[in-house]
């Protein structure tokens, strides 16, 4: 797969940094193709753990030197506009990881907050069942912000082992995008915007550790 980052740049937005379109992009066009630099593949036992996805990527970062070096090179920060509070299960996981690795708990929580803000999930399907899940970070996709009314779709559900093993991520425009627009995507899946407000908020909190404040959510809050 040919990597392509020519359509985007990292720029300043209302709440920090985000991906900005460098040209007009038509609906259906490929916006970004990028290889991940930090990742972990979830194991079966991980599926049984009630801790959120972010915990497992934190574990991969602090126990694998290559992941750690790449993660540090991104110089990422958590999004202060969102509230990242580890659940009881997340704290249990992080405390256990702290004891195992000797890393200070407050440092692990800091990494966890960053991972919550920036990671994405890629799923390999076989006969419509989940075969593998990869949690990942990479230079540009890290800066993409979640929206419940996004203008791109992450090709996160793959049917090909070859595509999954390539460790790349692809963004496709789900609507026309103008030069200078922020590029957003759903951190959950391409159908997420169809869920009701409470379901979206609960899912984001349990899976990603934050509550959404995108324009769609803000407008729906006013109607509650």
UniProtKB/TrEMBL annotation:
SUPFAM superfamilies linked to this entry: SET domain
UniProt KW keywords: Methyltransferase, S-adenosyl-L-methionine, Transferase
Keyword Methyltransferase part of the UniProt annotation: yes
The keyword Kinase is annotated on this UniProt entry: no
Pfam families (UniProt xref): SET
Gene Ontology annotations of biological process type: methylation; negative regulation of gene expression, epigenetic
GO MF terms, alphabetically ordered: histone H4K20 methyltransferase activity
Source superkingdom: Bacteria
Sequence ranges assigned to domain SET in this UniProt record: 1-188
The protein's name in its UniProt record: SET domain-containing protein
Organism, scientific name: Paraphotobacterium marinum
């Amino acid at each position: 797969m040919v990597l392509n980052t020519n359509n985007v740049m990292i720029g300043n937005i209302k709440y920090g940094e985000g991906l900005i379109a460098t040209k007009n992009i038509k609906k259906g066009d490929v916006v970004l193709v990028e290889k991940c630099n930090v990742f972990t593949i979830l194991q079966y036992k991980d599926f049984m753990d009630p801790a959120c996805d972010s915990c497992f990527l934190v574990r991969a970062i602090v126990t694998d030197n290559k992941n750690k070096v790449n993660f540090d090179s991104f110089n990422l920060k958590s999004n202060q506009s969102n509230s990242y509070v580890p659940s009881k299960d997340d704290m249990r996981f992080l405390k256990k990881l702290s004891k195992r690795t000797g890393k200070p708990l407050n440092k692990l929580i800091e990494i966890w907050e960053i991972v919550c803000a920036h990671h994405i999930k890629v799923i390999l399907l076989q006969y419509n069942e989940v075969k593998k899940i990869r949690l990942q970070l990479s230079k540009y996709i890290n800066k993409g912000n979640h929206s419940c009314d996004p203008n791109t779709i992450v090709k996160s559900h793959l049917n090909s082992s070859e595509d999954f093993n390539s460790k790349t991520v692809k963004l496709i425009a789900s609507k026309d995008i103008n030069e200078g627009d922020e590029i957003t995507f759903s951190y959950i899946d391409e159908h997420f915007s169809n869920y009701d407000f409470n379901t979206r908020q609960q899912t984001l909190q349990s899976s990603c550790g934050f509550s959404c404040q995108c324009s769609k959510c803000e407008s729906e809050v006013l109607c509650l």
